[in-house]
Amino acid sequence: MRDCMREAGSWQLRRRVGRIVSQVFRGRDAAAVTAMYHVACDMLEGCCPRAAAILEEAEPDALAYLDFPPSHWKRLRTNNVQERTNREIKRRSRVVQAFPSTASLVRLAGAVMCEQDETWQESRYFSEAKMRELYDEGRTRGLDGTVDWSRLEAEARKMIESGLELADRIEAA
Q: Could you give the percent of the chain with pLDDT greater than 70?
């Protein structure tokens, strides 16, 4: 999403691109999210072709979270955990300022990662029951049966456009 917004020129266009793309990841099932993703690519093609190209290229990575059970999506679709860990490594490395060797930096980062692992073990970020969902027989990407893609994409377009219209109305008020 940030890469797409970066490609937009003005701040108004950046905001519009962000509003279009952010709605995609609010979908509740894999088919709706996939349809909204394609509609968002089409909509961006008209206002910011470079952002649309980035979005199309990133589809496998951006929608990879859909391969997991829906109960995992909220935690997987963002990289907040990774960013938090990187901030902790930065915070601790600022104290040292200059590392005597690469190995000492690796030891520090390893210690932070071990601490993060212990935290996850205690808090059960993904509980055992949630992790078992990964191995349930018959679990699919959320695409159960046949999907009427034309109908789904039409609904996705309506959802994105109504979200944009609502945001414009709120902004104008």
A: 92
Residues across the chain: 173
Q: Give the whole-angstrom CA distance, residue 149 versus residue 82.
A: 34
CA 36, CA 74: separation in Å to the nearest integer? 17
> What percent of the chain is predicted at pLDDT more than 90?
20
User: Residues 161-165: what's their mean pLDDT?
Assistant: 87
What's the Cα-to-Cα distance from 159 to each of 17, 20, 62, 68, 111, rounded to whole Å?
Answer: 15, 10, 20, 24, 46
Q: Which two tokens stand for residue 109?
A: 């980062």
What type of residue sits at position 39? V
Give Cα 173 to chain centroid, integer Å. 30
State the CB neighbour count (10 A cutoff) for residue 151.
10
